[in-house]
Design goal:
It is built from 15 helices and 6 strands. The chain has about 290 residues and is an alpha/beta fold. It has a 6-stranded mixed β-sheet, sandwiched between helices. Its main location: membrane.
Length: about 290
Amino acid sequence: MKTIIYFLLLCITISLQAQDQKLENTLLWKISGNDLKQPSYLYGTIHITCDATLSPKIIKALDETSQLYLELDMDDPNMQMDMMKGIMMKDGITIKSLLSEEEYNLVNSFIKEELGMSLDMMNTMKPFLVGSMFYMKMLDCPMQSFEEELMKVSKAQDEEIYGLETVDEQLAVFDAIPYKLQAKDLVRSAKDKLTYDKEYFQKMLDLYSKEDLNALMLMMDDDTFESTANFNDELVVKRNKNWISKIERISKEEPTFFGVGAGHLGGKEGVIILLRQEGYKLTPILN
């Protein structure tokens, strides 16, 4: 179930904000100023990858902070149960009711081929989350997670792990996007057997490994993913704005390492700019 949770989280990261100004090529930023007694750090993660080795600069930032905040509290024992409560569509809607018989059969055959299960078993799930299960097919290597690695270090340092939002808050995003559009993307992925999705994901991994935050931001111009292209406010912007007051409060209480999807960092309404607008100094950590 933890693996599936990471797939669901990845979906949110893929929808990225347009950028208004260029940022330095790094995913790690120091938060200081505004009378903070000690700096905190902001780090852009990618939720599944082939190599989640933490660089020395990340380890150093973890050493200089005393707690870890991720998007979700990933070590919460109730997380899996909460996740199961939020994956179903509302009002009795089913995937079968959103698709033609031909489309449903196409997606069903593809899911059987790729995942070894019938779409009937997932008929009431939000289509976006069904599609996220394909991400296990995107990697040609054993899956690793930066969140897992960050948590390992924090636990070894006997530090607490928290979340900026709840599972309910995160999964509610997928109710704001029309289920019909989500189902349409599911059909698109099945039609070309993930060819485009794999190319897109590999490009994202390559840019992430280069810490090219600006190029990652530009990937949002791709409107192939219809269910996310027009809902950036719900997927990213509103969540960013909700996090700012929390990051401020938490950073004032004690030095904290914040790890959120890289897609939340850049852009005129990204976390970096929003914190700067509140008077904080965001310094790029290059090495």
